[in-house]
């Protein structure tokens, strides 16, 4: 596969694409509504940051303990069933029966199971799009994430201004229900990829291999720390925070489009370090406390650097044994989300004691430090996967 047209010629990928884009839009609206609600009630940057990424915090734990289910359960049943459960959880949020602290707690509980569904979805992409098709598929899904985040933040901001956060949460619940139906009707039945029970044992094997562990850390640390800075957009910009969120999503969209479509595996390798540096360096300028329009430009430039993740994913997939593809990709994705949520919590806590722009710049410096420490793992893995695990 060489073009996006080739990727979209696969009918089941079109279903996954539609489900992923709709799900991201719904989740973005819900996250924005919850973060705004918690910040309005508490005035705490720390609690607002935790609420923004509450569902991501436990995903690494879910991948470690439950990740093997991604290979042991039929993917259509798993994906459709989870979206139905997710819709019910969001409906509980929309009903307003939980206290403020209970809303993030519910999303954290849901995040445990969400890690398994994400693993199954990523593995199915790899199955449907072999070879270079996987990078193209991940690229177009990342582009969709950026586009739907723009739509989600715009639509969420509109809903919040017109009818408040409750309507936004109902919109998220309805979207999840639609995605459940889409997966049920648009994916064909498949047998599980594996039958043995090995969630914890498989995680130990993946984390025990030095090269695989290094590739996992590259996927988790640099961009996770930057999302910690992103979680402070609301305290930094107040009512104009949506401008920064849209700029971040737009920069990521352009980066994935350019790097995913117009680079080769060799050039993606060469671009890895520069892109990870670009991801963090603009946030150092937040020490100057730029106005919102300049901050948006810096955020957009930095978010282009998220495309460095494509080359890392490609090398990681090549190193994984096929029988552990679901669990391995799930651990990578869920660990990344948990790292992002942890970084958001830490930068939010830091912002309780130092000015918000300083906390954002420190997050950028930490990301650059992580890239420097992990730079050797940006080289390709050359040993055969079957000798690793």
Automatic annotation (TrEMBL):
List the subcellular locations: Cell membrane
Q: Tell me where on the tree of life, at the top rank, the source sits.
A: Bacteria
Q: What keywords tag this UniProt record?
A: Cell membrane, Membrane, Transmembrane, Transmembrane helix
Q: Is Zinc set as a keyword in this record?
A: no
MF terms (GO), sorted A to Z: transmembrane transporter activity
Q: How does it sit in the membrane?
A: Multi-pass membrane protein
Is Membrane set as a keyword in this record? Answer: yes
* GO-annotated cellular components: plasma membrane
**Which CDD domains does the protein's record reference?**
MFS_MefA_like
UniProt name for this protein: Membrane protein
Q: Which organism is it from?
A: Nonomuraea glycinis
